[in-house]
Amino acid sequence: MADRGVDPSILPKDVRDSLSELDLELSEGDVTQKGYEKKRAKLLAPYVPQTRGVDPTLQCEHRKQTPAPSSAPAPSSSSKYHRARSGGARDDRYRSDIHTEAVQAALAKHKEMKMALPMPTKRRSVFVHSALEACTPPDTSSASEDEGSLRRQAALAAALTQSLQNTESWINKTVQGSSTSSSASSTLSHGEGKTPHSSLADILAQARIENSPAPPDVTYPSSSSSDRTSHIDLPSFSGLVKGMTRDASKSSIMDTADGVPVNSRVSTKIQQLLNTLKRPKRPPLKEFFMDDFEEIVEVPQPDPNQPKPEGRQIVPVKGEPLGVASNWPPSLEAALQRWGTTQAKCPCLTALDVTGKPLYTLTYGKLWSRSLKLAYTLLNKLGTKNEPVLKPGDRVALVYPNSDPGMFLVAFYGCLLAEVIPVPIEVPLSRKDAGGQQIGFLLGSCGVALALTSEVCLKGLPKTQNGEIVQFKGWPRLKWVVTDSKYLTKPSKDWQPHIADATTDPGYIEYKSSKEGSVMGVSVSRIAMLTHCQALTQASSYTEGETLVNVLDFKKDVGLWHGVLMSVMNKLHAVSVPYAVMKACPLSWVQRVHTHKAKVALVKCRDLHWAMMAHREQRDIHLGSLRMLIVADGANPWSVSSCDAFLNVFQSHGLKPEVICPCATSPEAMTVAIRRPGVPGAPLPARAILSMSGLSFGVIRVNTEDKNSALTVQDVGHVMPGALMCIVKPEGSPQLCKTDEIGEICVSSRAGGMTYYGLPGVTKNTFEVIPLNPAGVPIGETSFVRSGLLGFVGPGSLVFVVGKMDGLLMVSGRRHNADDIVATALAVEPVKTVYRGRIAVFSVTVFYDERIVVVAEQRPDASEEDSFQWMSRVLQAIDSIHQVGLYCLALVPANTLPKTPLGGIHLSQSKQHFLEGGLHPCNILMCPHTCVTNLPKPRQKQPVGVGPASIMVGNLVAGKRVAQAAGRDLGLTDDQEAKKYLFLSEVLQSRAQSEPEHILFMLLNAKGVAVSTASCLQLHKRAERIAAALTEKGNLNTGDNVVLLYPPGIELIASFYGCLYAGCIPVTVRPPHQQSLSATLPTVRMIIDVSKAACILTTQILMKTLKSKEAAAAVDVKTWPTIIDTDDLPRRRPPQIYKPPTAEMLAYLDFSVSTTGMLTGVKISHAVVSALCRSIKLQCELYSTRQIAICLDPYCGLGFVLWCLCSVYSGHQSILIPPMELETNLSLWLSAVSQYKIRDTFCSYSVMEMCTKGLGTQTEALKVQDLPLRVCRSGGSSSSRISINTELREHRATFSGAAA
């Protein structure tokens, strides 16, 4: 039509009004179609340029159909549309000065582009035009839609040219294709020029009418829009169609939503009905959703040239069969008994003092006798005969310093003889030890309540002013037992320890720190201990009577396995060199080897390095007696340099090259591989020179290009005897690697850990791994244990280790090893800058990817110029060798990084300090521009097609819940541990036996003074008396309801558990107010009547109030149920304590009265109580050492649960503050938080409002108080919480904590 070539925005207002009136007349039937077209053409004729000899309407059509020669519109596709839409807006906080110019250019470019989005519209006939459409200019910004229109026109013209006679068949094919193109039709009908499409509809309609007058099936559904791109590019066909004008076609037909032409006589209402039935076309469902990651950043694409594994799939490697010697004992206790009785005078252990001289020698006879005495004392002298403190299977902490191996040896074997499980840990030095809280978590999860230590160690522990051992942060309350011989009891003649063959029962628990800093306990069975010792004996060729020098920590790992377990099994003489001696005299262990003619030495690379640096101090040493120099950290790929340097220096002192035996170990798989002692004169194993670039992609490539980026790796020997090893992919499912691929080493053997104690979920992922083949099918039923070591199996079944999972840094899809980064930094002449080579490397997540952070301790005498010069060279070296940029390189003052007990750097704590801003570096170099390559995308003009409403529609269409929140899984299981805490009455009984003196509740009065406390035993005894009174005085049956009418206090709690002991159902009710009995007593009466209570437990004062004359004026006092006064109860115990048959039985009734006077009662079962208490415990991190303050009414809801239930379940101490006391002392709550150093408190909004309004004028006086408040949890109505929280935050300057 003529108006399609005219921009309506340039028409005068009167012309636009006339067009609107004309459209209205046509829609109402006041004008015919022919008259409508004539009048419309007349109105627009002055504004349409004319061409001589051409019809104006065809001229306009031709101008619309012929694009400019310079324009090359791209094909339309949903994927390109999606990419254009999800380009993302760039937030100002991600702006970088380096990219400002590029971003501005991109913004300018995208600002010029006008996005054209297909919008869902109402489908209408081209016969009907609204006034709005007549005034809406055509949107010509979408070139893809214009081209789609031209291609459809061209395809139709070509078909008409080929066969005008076979119009019917052509129409049938075209209609089927057109019906699938409803998306394009609806798009063009929304704001885009309709001239091309309308003319096509005219031609189709004319052909349809001439060949097939039958009406179409308007109910035929339209198919997908997949055919809209199937077009043929042909030239314009306006000159081919002659004799059929637009007006003629429009006068008789119109187009339905299917694109099927129908007779123009179809009424407007029928057409509207059809449009309603036809579902409007919407964008694809995926376009309603936007991924934040893809929206914000540029996703890095993998390098197409990166090396990929090309070898065959690896086959699990078997170690040699584990032989069985005739003299091997059936258990380690049996071995100790054998040597302690038959070889009593043979030396077992020699300990050195701080000067490096022998302090004492422990013989096998002394070890046996002292272990017997300790086992007897643990089982028979720590408690009563009926209630022993320790039972077989209990866990016991061993707390001994590294300078006292003898006492540790006695304690360890004493625990084995007593059949208790030792948990060796480090000696705590202060409450602020790095990782001390995680050790406490380990002890708590293992249920440790007893700690064994020496007298000297006990005296050195930090103590309070009263002389008691301080409560270490996060630790459970421990009973300390001194194991010196003078404190032990000699066993009676008729007592003998139970020494049986090794079983699968846990033998000991070794702690292990993860990459994130959490501490887990690896449980090792007794049969695994014995099998591991046998495998080490066979692999290392140990013989009886050999001397072994141990420089390692004897409480864990290689030092424990060789120096404590395997040495006793083979009757070795172990010489322990403590860490303090190594710091004073690094050559002391070499002197011990020379003096004792030792056959075996256990060392680390640092010991080799220190001895090599100090060898000039003493030359008269000979190491020819050594047949094995076991390097415990041989899994470190950089250990080869220390081994080579040590060999070069001490080869002249008799050290043979074949005695150096690196090994690979982990707490989970224990000894993974160890190099066997070589034969003199035999060639040494070859070494692998690998490309570090290939290692970063997880493949093995021999380095041939750059020597600087090569990693020389030595083998760690063969697989242990009786073990099976495989290599699996470190990420995702445990799929077997290829022969030239780096993966995680997994071991299947009897000599390995069983579980992470108390962590079944993590255990399954580590200790129960079944490798898969490339097809995802398990290779067998044998389960493997993840070792946490990254490596491969080389020629000759030699095992090579290139790193650890804990040290893995994943940056932009490439793997880097923290040890490699440390080695590169140390290679840049750190003598003038770095203090004792102390460097920490870890990664932090910045902008959806890991970034590498290097922190080093700076020498005190290092200048700023030297420091920055070293830092610049380190950046260049790491970039050149590892092809990775550093995010941050910081230098901190010497001795400020958190330390491990043996002096190493505590990585997780260092990372935590970095994230919290607590490192306080003296020099820092931030280089985000070198490593953050996935910067935000340039800001683009956001389309208006998909807004919040469309996203919500997309969620609804996809079946997603729009508003839904879920907490984490409670992890409830059916095991014995879960059933143990199923009923609160049983939990209280258990706590009364295990920790009777532990204070659960403390009640404060208005002056802030503790007026009463309740320990576990006191609460239990009080509950027993109340249960006996209910049974005797009340004559109650199981399941009767009992009303508890008490003021806030401990008596209310005791009465609740007394009801549970008696099998009654407690109902807590707020007592009536003395000054307003007429208003409050009817509520009490109503709850008693509704609950059908059979008895009332209360105090003597309240009992008199219930029977007073004032009460008689409000209610009928003669119909009260039985009232029992619990102030003075006889010391009696119930005949038995009731235990519910199932957890679905009722625990208590919770009645509450709303502000409108509505009474609501809720039945609470024991299962609900257990789940609720467990969820609060997990969410609020409640355990026995925690202390919280509660200022809530204890009669219903969360206040009752926190006041009466949670402390018994979780074991924490609750400081109870009755809210009514705040009426006389507004600062009571905050003063209690300050006085007791409370970190977590619970209160109601009314309490917060009262404190903020009442204390608002006293902020200056309160500034002297210290509030270490971490979390303030508010419970209650949400009507005024915003204003109250705002007021509390305004007064936050008074406190040192924060309110949440």
Descriptive notes:
By secondary structure, the protein is an alpha/beta fold. It is built from 44 helices and 43 strands. It has a 9-stranded mixed beta sheet with strand order 5-4-13-12-14-15-16-17-20, sandwiched between helices. It has a 6-stranded mixed beta sheet with strand order 33-32-41-40-42-43, sandwiched between helices. Strand 1 and strand 2 form a beta hairpin.
| End-to-end gap | 67 Å
Strand content: 15-25%
Relative helix content:
25-40%
Overall shape: it is: globular
Overall number of strands: 43
Nearest-integer average pLDDT:
77
Quick structural gist:
This protein has 1300 residues and is an alpha/beta fold.
Which structural traits does this protein have?
AMP-dep_synth/lig_dom, 17% strand, DMAP1-binding domain-containing protein, ANL_N_sf, single chain, nine-stranded mixed beta sheet, 1300 residues, globular, alpha/beta
Tell me the layout of helices and strands.
Layout: H1 13-28, H2 33-44, H3 56-65, H4 78-85, H5 100-112, H6 131-135, H7 143-162, H8 167-179, H9 182-188, H10 195-211, H11 246-250, E1 253-255, E2 261-263, H12 268-277, H13 292-296, E3 317-318, H14 332-342, E4 347-352, E5 358-363, H15 364-380, E6 395-399, H16 405-418, E7 421-425, H17 436-446, E8 450-453, H18 455-460, E9 479-482, E10 506-513, E11 519-525, H19 526-540, E12 547-550, H20 557-569, E13 573-576, H21 579-584, H22 588-596, E14 600-603, H23 605-613, E15 628-631, H24 639-650, E16 660-666, E17 670-674, E18 688-691, H25 692-696, E19 710-713, E20 718-719, E21 724-728, E22 743-748, E23 755-756, H26 760-767, E24 785-793, E25 799-804, E26 808-811, E27 814-817, H27 818-826, E28 834-845, E29 850-858, H28 864-882, E30 886-893, H29 907-916, E31 923-926, H30 928-931, H31 948-957, H32 976-980, H33 984-994, E32 999-1004, E33 1010-1015, H34 1016-1032, E34 1041-1045, H35 1050-1062, E35 1065-1069, H36 1077-1091, E36 1095-1098, H37 1100-1106, H38 1109-1112, E37 1122-1125, E38 1146-1153, E39 1159-1165, H39 1166-1180, E40 1187-1191, H40 1197-1210, ...
Family: Belongs to the DIP2 family.
Region (Disordered): 47-96, 174-198, 211-238
Organism: Acipenser oxyrinchus oxyrinchus
